[in-house]
Specification:
By secondary structure, this protein is mostly helical. It has one domain: Serine Threonine Protein Phosphatase 5, Tetratricopeptide repeat (Alpha Horseshoe), CATH 1.25.40. The chain is built from 8 helices and no strands. The chain starts with a helix and ends with a helix.
């Protein structure tokens, strides 16, 4: 199946709308992360970054680190990694590097292999772009 950005954005928007109705922090945080990813991957990097910022503002390590068992990696680390890419694409390499380093540091603190691999992949993805 081919990538369909409009479907991706619509599904993310539906998730976020449902999360807003619930008024629970975790679904809202995840909804903003999904919106950020869908917007960034369909060309609206600025608005995507805004959603990543909102997701990170809602993230509470004590409350949300357990979600890694559901999603395969810590949501905070994953969001930092995604925001790092957005910052890189927007022309802020220093801020992108800071987010990538913070994601790796947080992942090492958590001690979960999948989370650390996600953070390392995100940092590698940005470093490969810098060599082009």
């Amino acid at each position: 199946m081919a990538f369909n950005g409009s479907v991706m954005r619509e599904l993310a928007a539906q998730f976020l709308a449902l999360a807003e109705k619930q008024k629970a922090t975790a679904p809202l945080m995840i909804g903003h992360r999904l919106m950020g990813m869908s917007l960034m991957y369909t060309g609206n990097v600025v608005e995507g970054r805004t959603h990543f910022n909102r997701a990170l503002a809602l993230y509470d390590p004590t409350e949300h680190r357990l979600l890694a068992t559901r999603f395969g990696q810590d949501v905070g680390v994953a969001t930092l990694s995604q925001r790092s890419l957005a910052l890189w694409l927007l022309g802020y390499p220093v801020a992108a590097l800071a987010d990538a380093e913070q994601a790796i540091s947080n992942a090492r603190e958590i001690g979960e292999t999948a989370t650390l691999m996600y953070a390392l992949y995100g940092a590698l993805r940005n470093s490969k772009r810098s060599r082009r």
